[in-house]
Amino acid sequence: MMLQVLLLLLPALSPALSWIPVQDWESGNVTASVGLSGQCVCQVYLPDTTFPANRVQHMQQVSKDLILEMEIQINKMERYEVKLVNYLKELTDLTYRVSVLEGSSENYIKLDFELLRIEIREFEYLVYQLKHSLNSSSPLFDSLYTEIRNMTLIVKQLETYDNQNLEVIRIKFAKLQKKLEECQKDHEFIQPDIGNCNHTGILSISKPVVVQLNAHLSASYQYGGWGKDSKPVRGYENMYFYGGFSSPAVYDFYLYSDYEKLILRNAFQHRDIRGWEGTGNNYIVHSNTIYYQRYSPFSMAKLNLTALKYDYRVISDASQTFSYIYSHNQYLDFAADENGLWVMYASENSKGKIVLAKIDEKSFGIKDVWNTGVFKQSAGNAFMACGVMYVTRAVDANTEEIFYAYDTKTKEEKQLSIQFKKFQEKYSNLDYNPSDQKLYMYNNGYYVSYNVSFNKK
After folding, report:
1. Which residues, including other chains, have CB under 8 Å from residue 359's CB and lie 6 or more apart?
2. Which pLDDT tens digit goes with each residue over 249-296?
3. Does residue 68 lie in a domain region?
């Protein structure tokens, strides 16, 4: 192989020439002559064996290895970045909790007392349920009621004291709990049979259990909803959700791993649905998927919380004219019960009366439709339980009642009067949860829940 170069370019060739052994230069491989134009021409003879082909191949392989290693490191950095974001969030939460603790430990003591108060109210309801299930009155029940009232007074007295007194109330509380369990066992009291619809419908609704103001700690967040997954997936049986807004617009949700995290406002996930905004407040979480009313196009939408996959379906018959009396834009009302997933709406064809539709969870389409006889605009809200639609309305500022029921199995309508107390006059979300047989209400910015009793056959 011969390479001709101008002497003026010889310096540029020097890197290549450096590969040629010295003895090859000395053996006459380099000659010089004068060109036609008078320039000096240098002729260099490079034997094929002197070109470092093996080194080039080696460098190519090294380059590929370096590129692969770089991609691996970039992937590691991306994973580390995600972990770092999570760690920073946890650190922020921890810093906040430490700062609160340094400021005053009373905040955590108040949380413990709040949980105790809620449990005491639930015990009161259990005693009431036990008494009415046996249809009797005895000194035993009177004694339990007295102890519950005393426990309530003790909680109020000790709430201002230190953590040592908190242990005292816990001991007393445990004794009361044990006595109640013994009472239930002695009288063969039947606990709520979750998932069983062997009854003739709702018998009564308990007193309201007011948990606290919403996670934003603002009374201006009057629109929203909260509750539990009606068909929880494995590992998320205790998960709670919350969405609160100052208007009927729906643009994000908060998820809490358990009840205590809900009280502490310590969400493990925040789902922002901007780009897929909703409106109205009758959304639910079912099988780790949020079902809600999409704003544009007007449709029912869902977001899978694991895959973060959106989907929507337009219900051509649904109207944007008829909403519940307490809240605007509640045209599609999602519900879940022991029989599956439902959506309630009104249409021009139904002349404003509620249309009940069964949702096919796999295809996300409408499976069956029932036309009911109740006007949606006269209703406060509606929910499903064991295939029966229950509709509520106001009795007065403090009382709500279930006044109508429609059975999808028999297609029968009933007029009812099952009254229950409201915490405040208006509410924007009311849904039954089959996993614990409770009603969850978002009442003017507050978390409120009720126990549901069914009339057993």
Report:
1. 300, 340, 341, 342, 343, 365, 366, 367
2. 999 999 999 988 898 889 999 999 999 999 999 999 999 999 999 999
3. no
Segments forming the whole domain that contains residue 348: 199-456
d(CA 389, CA 334): 12
Bridge partners, residue 421, by sequence: 399
d(CA 231, CA 338): 9
Closest CA to 256 of 212, 193, 220, 300: 212
How far is 359 from 128, CA to CA, in rounded Å?
37
Phi, psi for 368 (deg, rounded to 5)? -140, 155
Total residue length of the chain: 457
Say if 178 falls within a structural domain.
yes
Do 331 and 307 have their domain in common?
Answer: yes
Tell me: do 42 and 157 sit in the same domain: no
* Backbone phi, psi, residue 263, to 5°: -65, -40
Do 152 and 179 belong to one domain?
yes
The answer for residues whose C-beta is within 8 angstroms of residue 102's C-beta and 6 or more apart is none
Same domain, 181 and 217: no
For residue 41, what are its two tokens? Answer: 């021409």
Same structural domain, 331 and 451: yes
Residue 354 falls inside a structural domain = yes
| Count of domains for the chain | 3
User: With pLDDT > 90 as the criterion, what percentage of the chain qualifies?
Assistant: 48
Q: What is the DSSP letter of 320?
A: S
- Both 375 and 232 in one domain: the answer is yes
Q: How many CA atoms lie within 13 A of 95 on its CB side?
A: 6
Residues 6 or more apart whose CB falls under 8 angstroms from that of 403 comprise 391, 392, 393, 415, 416, 417
Q: Is residue 381 domain-resident?
A: yes
Q: Which of 131, 153, 186 is the last residue of a domain?
A: 186
Q: Which amino acid is at 441?
A: M
- pLDDT band with cut points at 50, 70 and 90 for residue 17: very low
pTM of the model: 0.64
CA distance 288 to 241: 10
**pLDDT tier, 93 (very low <50, low <70, confident <90, very high otherwise):** low
User: 324 and 209 in one domain?
Assistant: yes
Tell me if residue 164 falls in helix, strand or coil.
Answer: helix
| Stronger pLDDT, 186 or 145, i.e. the higher one | 145
Cα gap 126→191, rounded to integer Å: 9
